[in-house]
Design brief:
Length: about 900
Amino acid sequence: MAKWVYGFGDGKAEGRAGDRNLLGGKGANLAEMCSLGLPVPPGFTITTEACNWYYANGNTYPADLTEQVLAALEEIGKIAGKRFGDPANLLLVSVRSGARASMPGMMDTVLNLGLNDGTVEALARESGDERFAYDSYRRFIQMYSNVVLDLDHEMFEEILEDEKASRGVELDTELSAKDWQHVIGLYKAKVEEELGKPFPQDPQEQLWGAIGAVFSSWMNHRAITYRRLHDIPESWGTAVNVQAMVFGNMGDTSATGVAFTRNPSTGENKLYGEFLVNAQGEDVVAGIRTPQNITEAARLDAGSDKPSLEKVMPEAFKAFVEISDKLEKHYRDMQDLEFTIERGKLWMLQTRSGKRTAKAALRIAVEMAGEGLITQEEAVSRIDPASLDQLLHPTIDPKAERKVIGLGLPASPGAATGEIVFSSDDAEELKTQGRKVILVRVETSPEDIHGMHAAEGILTTRGGMTSHAAVVARGMGKPCVSGAGTLRVDYRAGHLLAMGRTFKKGDVVTIDGSTGQVLDGAVPMLQPELSGDFASIMEWADRIRRMKVRTNAETPADARMARSFGAEGIGLCRTEHMFFDDDRIVAMREMILSDTEKDRRAALAKLLPMQRSDFAELFEIMAGLPVTIRLLDPPLHEFLPKTEEEIAEVAKAMNVSADKLRQRTESLHEFNPMLGHRGCRLAVSYPEIAEMQARAIFEAAVEAGKKTGSPVVPEVMVPLVGVAKELDFVKARIDEVARNVIEESGTKIDYLVGTMIELPRAAIRAHVIAEAAEFFSFGTNDLTQTTFGISRDDASSFLEAYRQKGIIEQDPFVSLDIEGVGELVRIAAKKGRHTRPEIKLGICGEHGGDPASIRFCEEVGLDYVSCSPFRVPIARLAAAQAAVKKG
Ligand code: ADP
Ligand code: MG
Ligand code: MG
C-alpha cells in the first residue's frame, strides 16, 4: 500500500526537513520543527506524489487516500484532544498548500475549516468568546468561497465594507459578534445566489473540497506564470498540509505575525518582524491594518508609536526569540517564520530559508562565515549569482537634489526612474514599447506579477515590509517603496496625489528603495562598485574558482567597467562594431564596394590607423592580460549604404556613379546572410581585410606595450571556421603580417592564432583544426543556431510555444543546451586537447554569463568564460560555485 499521508505533532513526525521533494517545503519543515520539540499544532501532509497521481488520473484521488486522511485526522484529534466535525469538542483545521520550492502567494490557504452553522455556536460556547467564533466563521466562508468555490473575493469585501460603514466603524476588529452574524447571513446568501446552492455545511465535504482546490491550484494561471518565471518544473506537484487550527483572533492576548531571524533587506543580525493583535492568517501581509514591530529596538528605529510584541506579550516574545535562534542555528541560515499566539501561548506555523535582497544575502553569508556557522565555501555557494545583478544597478547620487514628494518603507533597495502607471497591464504594454515605468498601486497582489516584472520599480501606498509588493520585489531584485501613506492613488481618475500635486499616468518619478523616498522627476544616479561584503565574497570566490573570467568588450568604456568588475582580459572583441562610427563607415563602404583588390587596399589603408588606435586603447586598459580579437565576422551587406543619401556620399568618396554603386550593392544581396558570405569566408575572398586587421592588432600591441610596460597577449581569432584549411589559409596571412611587424618594429610579440568553434563541423573536426589553432573559443550563440538550425532572430515567434508545450525546458540561447550543443563542446574540447594538449579553451557566447552554463564549462574543464561587463561579477561567483560543486 502506497503511503500518501505523513503525520506530525506532539514532538514527533514521520517526515524530515530532507523530505521536501515528497512533502513540499512547508510540510517538510513543519515535520522538522515538530521533531525539534517546538510548539507546532499537529497535522499531516498529503504528498506531492498524490498530486501527481491526481493529475495522471483525470483529477481523481488514489483509492487508499481517503482512509489514510481519515486516520491521520483521528490522530490529530487525539493529540489536540478534539474531533473533526464534533460540536462537543470541535477540531478545526487549516488546509495549506506547499510545493518543493516556496511559491509565495501562489496557492491559497483555507483557515477555520470545519465550521458550519452548528459548530460555530459550539465554538462560541467553548471559547466563551462569541465575537471570535463568528469572526472565524465569516473568514472561513470568505476564504473557502474564494479558493474552493471560485467566487470573487471582492463580493465579500464589499459586504464587509458596507457593514463597517453602516456601523460607523473603520476596523474589522471593531465589529461585534452580532455584526459578524449579520455579515455571515449576507455571505451565505451571496454564495447561494451565485452558485444556486447553499454554502457547504458538511465538514468532510469542506475538507475534500479544499484538498481538491489545493491540487487544482497547482495548475492555476498564477502558479503557471510563477513556475515559468522561476524555472520550476510542472512535474514537481504540490503537497497539501492539513493542520489543527490555533487562533490569533481570540482577543487581545492573541496575535499573529511573521518574522525573519535577520533583517531581510539589510542583512543586519537582528530579529526583524511584524505582528497584529487579535488577527488571523494573512492579515499582517495583506496590509489590512498597519502591523506592529516585534522588537522594541525595531519599533524605536521605525519611530512607531504602536507597542512592540516585546512590550505587550513579553512571555511569548521571549519564547519566540529562543525558537528563532534555535531554528537559525539548526538550519544554519536566516529563517522566515510564521507564528500565532493564542491566549498568550506561542505556536510555530512555518519556517523556511528567508528570501533576502542581494545586499542582505552578502552580509548574512559573510557574517555567518565570520560567526563560524558556515564555511567560506558555503558562504560563496549561498549567493544566487543572478541576484548580484541588483547590486550592479545604479543608486541615487548623494549630491543630487532630491525633490521628495512622498515617503514610504525602504522595502527593496536600489533606485529607479520611470513613468507612472497604475495597472500591471499598462506596465507591460509600455515596457514592450521600450519605455521605463514605475508601477504605482495601493497594494499589489499575485495578479500583478507580470506588471512588477515589466516595471523598473514598484511603489505602493499601503502595506509593510512583508507585504506582497515588498516580498516579491525583493525576490525580483527590483527597487520598491511600500506603504507610502502620504500618497493617494485614485485609480478611477488615474492619478497620484502627492504633496498637493497631481501626478498623471506618464509623469516621471524616481523611487529610492533604500530610503523609502519618492522623488519628483528623473534624478542623477551613481554607478555601482564592488566594496564591503560584496568585495569579500568576490575575494573568496576568486580564491576558490579555477576558471578565468574575461569580458566581451570592444569599447574602452566597457573594457574599463569590466576591469573594475574584475575581468581578467577580453574574451571577445568584435571588430565590426568599430566600423559603424560615422567617420569610418564611409571608408568601410568604399572597401566593401570596391571591385578590385587595389581599390580595396586603398580603402583599407584609411581604416588601418583607426583600427590600430582602437586596439591600442583597449590594450592599454588590459595591460598584461590576454585580449582575443575576432576578425571581421558579419556579412558585408550589413555595412552597405541604404538610403539614397548614403549612396551618394559613398559614390562621391569613391568617385563612381550612384548607379554603379547600386548595382554592386544588389550583387551583394544574400538570401540567407546568417549562412552566407561572412566570417573567415570574407578573409578567404579578401585576405587583405584580415591582413589589415592583423597589422592593426600587432602594431597596437607594440605601441601599447611600450607605453604600459606590460604588453597584452593578442589572441587573433578567426571566425566561422568549418574546414581546417580555412584556418590554415588565414593563419598563414596573419603569421606573415606578424613577422613583418616584428621585423619593422624590432619588438618581440607574443600572440596566438586560434578559432571560434561555432559550426558543428568544426566541433567534429576539432582534432584537425587544432593542428593550426592555438586556442578554441566556443561561440555558443552561432553554435546553438547552427546546431538547432534555428535562427535566433526568428526564434521568438515559436520558442515560447515550445516552452509552454514542454518540448524544450529553456531557451537554448539563454542557457546552454547541454545535451546537444554542450555535447559538441565536449567533443571539440576532447579532440582539440588530443591534438594539442595545452590548447586554450574558452567560451564567448551569451552563455558565458549564465550560471548554469558556467557550471557546464567547469565540468568540461574550459580555461575561461567570457561575458558582458555587467555579468563579470556574476560569472566570477558562478565559476567559484561550479568549482565547489565539482569538488
Ligand atoms: P502561505 O504559503 O501563503 O504562506 P500558509 O499555509 O503559510 O500560506 O498560511 C498562511 C497563514 O495562515 C499562516 O502564516 C498562518 O498565519 C495561518 N495559518 C495556517 N495554518 C494555520 C493554523 N493551523 N492555525 C493558525 N493559523 C494558520
Ligand atoms: Mg506561510
Ligand atoms: Mg559567430
